[in-house]
């Protein structure tokens, strides 16, 4: 899912790719970094925001 982000000073539109993921337990920092890198490569996104939720 891509969401437009607008800086009102420049009126230039930018996009950020969001990934919402739910885990049973909190992933380690290494796992989170690995997942973020993999998602950036798969989506070809320059900027990606990973949102992690645990049950």
Keywords:
45% strand; elongated; 1 helix; 55 residues; three-stranded mixed β-sheet; 27% helix; alpha+beta
Overview of this protein structure:
- The chain starts with a strand and ends with a strand.
- A hairpin with a 4-residue loop joins strand 1 and strand 2.
- The chain has a three-stranded mixed sheet with strand order 1-2-3, covered by helices on one side.
- It is elongated, with a radius of gyration of 13 Å.
- The chain has one domain.
- By secondary structure, the chain is an alpha+beta fold.
Order of helices and strands: EEHE
Strand content: over 45%
Shape annotation: elongated
Counted up, domains total: 1
Please outline the major beta sheet.
Answer: 3 strands, mixed
- What's the multimeric state? single chain
Summarize this entry quickly.
The chain is of the alpha+beta class and 55 residues long. The chain has one helix at residues 29-43; strands spanning 2-7, 12-23, 48-54.
Write the layout of secondary structure elements.
Layout: E1 2-7, E2 12-23, H1 29-43, E3 48-54
Parallel strand pairs: 2-3
Antiparallel strand pairs: 1-2
